[in-house]
Amino acid sequence: MRPDLEDLYRDLHAHPELSFQEERTAALAEEHLAALGYETHRVGGGVVGLLRRGDGPTVLLRADMDALPVREDTGLPYASTATATTADGETVPVMHACGHDVHVTALLGAARLLAEVPTWHGTLELVLQPAEELGAGARAMLDDGLAGHLPAPDVALAQHVLGVTPAGTVVLRPGPVLSTAAALRVTVHGVGTHGSMPHLGVDPVVTAAAIVLRLQGLVSRETAPGEFAVVTVGAIHTGTTANTVPESVELLVSVRAYSGRVRERLLAGIRRVVTAEREAAGCPVPPDLELTTSFPLTTNDAAATDRAAAALIDALGADKVGTLEPQTASEDFSLIPTALGAPYVYWGLGGFTDPEAVRPNHSPQFAPAIEPTLVTGTTALAATALAWLAAPADG
């Protein structure tokens, strides 16, 4: 299978698609699954594949399909030169800078392996999800009736290529593995005036600057040392000239935490700080606060993680299975098993053979090694699925 997997990966990498634009990727996945005998459905911009073999457990495997508006700088012979048009009409470069091409390839590889293994029983469900990068794809599939296309799974499994462990290895742990996150668009309204006459207006830039500084206290002064929390102001948009006080300032703010309670406290704190600074500055109009994205906490089920870990050790070797430290990145995968009432396991897949070549996800230089990454990812998905599908009847 290796040559086929490698060719598929290069093709996917060279033809990335933005969130909710994954038509070519979805069609390719649908074609592969249908050729293997899977029943396929299009749901919420994604693809569902089903392989039924009588009574038995039901296992869901998931991969995300979308790419990012990033210009590739890897120098690979199969590097992306693709562009796409955003919802705002802007033309942007597109790259698989997060490894979703690895995920799709490994899932289709596992689909082929499992289709050729005659000894398991039950139902295998494959979910190829759009728009993970927006935190909206899982919800789109659920809203489009995903639950009506498949039986409730006994377990859901997913993986993500990372640089925190070498290629050829996987890492996992029970409990929280990815943070919960949210992003806000905050608009502070002032009164515009000439830069030489600030007393005749209300300067929203000064208010925004005070907000940025005050927000740092939500972590340093309001969060216990043992709790993880991050507040980041990633963008400030305002103004056109040096001698004009603008009418408004837009701030893009993100938060991350390992618990929903901490996340909600941070969001409430942002609203409190923004409102207070507006009042202190005398801004004439209340600020606008819009929640733009929201990601759930990814927290692995303990019993399912133990079972998956045992299968991974059997398939890969004990020296290839390690412990995943909680990551500060976020995912929307958990929405699917949570909505379907299933426990889930999410693990990290090593993607780099050379420590000097490791780049973080979303980097223009993100270039996982094709092997052993693809074989390891394919094996990991197939082996963990069989831990349920090929289990004894009383297991």
UniProtKB/TrEMBL annotation:
UniProt keywords, alphabetically: Hydrolase, Manganese, Metal-binding
Organism in which the protein naturally occurs: Actinomyces radicidentis
UniProt entry tagged with the keyword Transferase: no
Signal peptide (UniProt feature, chain positions): none
Cofactor dependency: Mn(2+)
NCBIfam families: amidohydrolases (TIGR01891)
Residues annotated to bind Mn(2+): 98, 100, 133, 160, 362
Source superkingdom: Bacteria
Cofactor notes: The Mn(2+) ion enhances activity.
Domain Peptidase M20 dimerisation residues, every copy: 181-277
Name of this protein: Amidohydrolase
A molecular function (GO) term: metal ion binding
